[in-house]
## 1
Amino acid sequence: MPKQQLQPKRPYYKMSFQSKEALKTLVFQKGFTIKQAAQTLSINYTSAKTIILQFREQQIRKCIKYLSMKPCLVKQASKIKYNLKIISQTGGVMVNEKIYCLR
């Protein structure tokens, strides 16, 4: 059996921080598709797609915080006021914030 010949590896180009930020801005704030943003910035589509997917995963990991390891419990309503704060974000940037007062 002949040994397989090794193919030379493709060159790896490190993308600058500014181009990554420009890509995120185009996709999340200006509404471009990943393909359109990649073409506008002259970036490889697969690289742009990987950057956007990694950014989304990072944002999801940041947002999930569990205060307790206990399962969810039901508690009877009391006379305590609860403030509920809902923050809407797009691409990690706050878009809207609303505070509700529950009694």
## 2
Amino acid sequence: MLNNREMFSSVNFLNNELARMKKNIIVKKQMSRCSVDAYGFSTLWAWRIVGVAHVEDFESVTDASKRAACERQALKMAKMLLKERRKFHAITEVVSAIRQIHSQSS
């Protein structure tokens, strides 16, 4: 049988553990939201591909057909990130999806 002091200590320990677990869950959820936002934000460069500002990396490709192929692939990646960004839970999943698009285009 636990005495009052031991019981208080156990309850205090459990409360601290519960608080720590809640904090971890909140942090993970917030990081997940930040990642989703970042994936969406990362597609803003797509507007430069089709807009007036352009993307210097693509503009430096002198062969027009190669540049167009690179731009198409980049736009496919941007579209995928915009439409499906909530399904990704880790950056490795994003990289795998981008590699899959790249292999389909090759």
